[in-house]
């Protein structure tokens, strides 16, 4: 009887150990909070192929934008048709028809018409990614866009310097902004100042410099993540085909420094913050 009992205990222990090893080997799930599925004139990958890329890299959710919005619409159509599996798609309206709109959208009333027309589809959760720097954010049409976002409970996804971000909040302090690239090379001190001043600001980390050195988290960024664990998101920024080709490397790089953080902090940055922000209304 003792032998049988001991064998059962060993068997249970082996199962638990095996389950633990499998969990440890499975990469942390990632929500891609900066994904472009551009169609100019056609995408780099088909819808099925891009869904396969996400699945291969254990990306379980995406903040989807495209230029024009055709790409995001195609993904949402695929979702409606049951072709995206468990992939969670959070669609944003991109205020661009063609690439030159990047330089002029903030002074173009027809872009505001585009935003209003796209919103009628009924499923968008935000506006962006849009590019605006410095005092260019102070135009009438940017202010209308910010107010439209607040009125309709939409997020803004801003590729902006810190001056423009401050102007966006000055248009309407109720705005909620995902800060693309978190200021690129802006100092961690200034990033911390911005996050403290604006509780409705979240930093997205694609192309953000200084996070690691030699594959190791820098002390400054580790301290920032521990201080603001609820305020950061990850993104691929697949703005050109080369970013799709290196998608796996981008996700592997994120996972390389996420494991250097406490597990609960890593989980928030990898996917938890996005889940909290974009949960269904």
Sheet with most strands: strand arrangement: 1-2-3-4-5-6-7-10
Assign the structural class, choosing from mainly alpha, mainly beta, alpha/beta, alpha+beta, or little secondary structure: alpha/beta
Summarize model confidence as the mean pLDDT: 92
Number of domains: 1
- The CATH superfamily name is Metal-dependent hydrolases
Approximate helicity band: 40-55%
Distance between the termini: 57 Å
Question: At the first level of CATH, what is the class?
Answer: Alpha Beta
CATH architecture name: Alpha-Beta Barrel
Q: Kindly report the CATH topology.
A: TIM Barrel
Give the overall silhouette.
globular
Largest sheet: 8 strands, parallel
Q: What string gives the helices and strands in order?
A: HEHEHEHEHEHEHEEEHEHHH
- Overall number of strands: 10
The rounded Rg comes to: 21 Å
Uncertain regions spanning at least 5 consecutive residues: 1-23
Our estimate of the beta-strand percent is 15-25%
Helix count, DSSP H or I runs of 4 or more residues? 11
Summarize the structure.
The protein has 281 residues and is an alpha/beta fold. It contains eleven helices and ten strands.
């Amino acid at each position: 009887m003792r032998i049988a009992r001991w064998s059962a205990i060993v068997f249970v222990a082996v199962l638990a150990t095996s389950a633990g090893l499998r969990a440890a080997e499975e990469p942390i799930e990632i929500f891609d909070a900066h994904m472009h599925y551009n169609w100019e004139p056609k995408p780099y990958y088909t819808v099925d192929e891009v869904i396969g890329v996400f699945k291969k890299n254990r990306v379980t959710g995406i903040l989807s934008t495209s230029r024009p919005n055709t790409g995001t619409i195609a993904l949402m159509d695929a979702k409606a048709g049951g072709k995206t599996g468990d992939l969670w798609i959070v669609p944003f309206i991109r205020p661009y028809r063609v690439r030159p709109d990047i330089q002029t959208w903030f002074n173009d009333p027809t872009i505001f018409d585009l935003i209003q027309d796209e919103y009628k589809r009924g499923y968008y959760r935000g506006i962006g990614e849009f590019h605006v720097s410095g005092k260019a954010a102070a135009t009438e049409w940017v202010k209308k866009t910010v107010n439209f976002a607040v009125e309709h409970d939409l997020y803004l996804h801003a590729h902006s310097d810190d001056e423009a971000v401050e102007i966006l909040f000055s248009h309407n302090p109720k705005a909620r902004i995902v800060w693309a690239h978190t200021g690129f090379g802006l100092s961690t001190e200034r990033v911390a100042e911005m996050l403290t001043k604006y509780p409705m600001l979240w930093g997205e980390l694609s192309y953000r410099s200084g996070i690691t050195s030699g594959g190791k988290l820098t002390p400054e960024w580790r301290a920032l993540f521990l201080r603001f664990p609820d305020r950061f998101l990850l993104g691929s920024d697949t703005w050109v085909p080369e970013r799709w080709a290196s998608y796996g490397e981008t996700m592997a790089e994120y996972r390389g420094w996420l494991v250097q953080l406490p597990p609960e902090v890593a989980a928030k940055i990898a996917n938890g913050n996005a889940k909290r922000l974009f949960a269904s209304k």
